[in-house]
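Lab meeting, item 3. Inverse folding demo.
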């Protein structure tokens, strides 16, 4: 899980830096197109079909477009990661609302803590557009997760992700007409390689290995190391220090998310 935390945690500050040279649409396309190029040799095939295509739209294409805009408008990319990782809370709420799944007292407490933590984190710096998009992305991710659980739970994860990454590159390619700006420098070229490598390739390879070794539940709980890693790496690369409210609110949010997963 250390590889997952470092790869996905690093992708937040790297994407924030990249967005100063590259439009969100171009960065999204590069993440998927180069990510597919890196992933396909490891997958040794793809898991394709209509359910896989819809999952790609929800879990990849729309998710990453919104993520990049959230990072563009956020003051701290690490806070964005915390808000997006409220996804398990939304999963639990939606399961209870639409599928009648019962929740434990610990999970209910986790929901309250998570949303209180979010309010505390963003209330200190006002609820700006970046924060709104990050929470929206967490909700979208939860919808995509539930769809995956209902339709694709028995798929080969590596082959599924290889297809979803490749198909997402095709889905987002028309958005390049909206804004195709790319400031060509050595740093922007390096970032255009590092973001797909960390976010779409190494992160998922480490993730699938962790799921196989630790199981899905334990791996999901330990994935909360990603926002912590994002805070540390955002400070190292951008000098971004969380405010007291962001620090305490993020900690409360992650504790709440953990309780919903382990309840």
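The presenter then showed the designed sequence:
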């Amino acid at each position: 899980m250390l590889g997952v935390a470092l790869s996905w945690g690093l992708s937040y500050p790297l994407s924030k830096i990249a967005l100063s040279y590259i439009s969100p649409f171009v960065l999204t396309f590069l993440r998927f197109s180069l990510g597919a190029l890196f992933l396909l040799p490891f997958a040794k095939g793809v898991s394709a079909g209509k359910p896989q295509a819809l999952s790609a739209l929800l879990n990849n294409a729309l998710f990453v477009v919104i993520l990049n805009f959230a990072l563009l408008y956020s003051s701290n990319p690490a806070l964005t990661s915390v808000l997006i990782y409220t996804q398990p809370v939304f999963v639990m709420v939606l399961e209870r609302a639409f599928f009648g799944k019962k929740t434990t007292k610990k999970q209910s407490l986790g929901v309250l803590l998570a949303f209180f933590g979010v309010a505390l984190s963003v209330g200190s710096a006002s609820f700006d557009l970046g924060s709104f998009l990050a929470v929206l992305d967490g909700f979208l991710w939860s919808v995509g997760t539930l769809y995956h659980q209902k339709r694709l739970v028995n798929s080969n994860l590596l082959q599924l992700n290889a297809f979803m990454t490749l198909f997402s590159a095709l889905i987002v390619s028309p958005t390049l007409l909206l804004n195709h700006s790319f400031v060509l420098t050595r740093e922007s070229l390096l970032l255009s390689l590092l973001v797909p490598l960390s976010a779409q390739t190494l992160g998922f390879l480490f993730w699938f290995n962790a799921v196989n070794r630790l199981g899905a539940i334990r791996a999901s709980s330990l994935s909360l190391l990603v926002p912590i890693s994002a805070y540390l790496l955002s400070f190292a690369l951008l000098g971004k220090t969380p405010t007291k409210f962001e620090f305490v609110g993020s900690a409360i949010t992650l504790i709440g998310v953990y309780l919903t997963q382990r309840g």
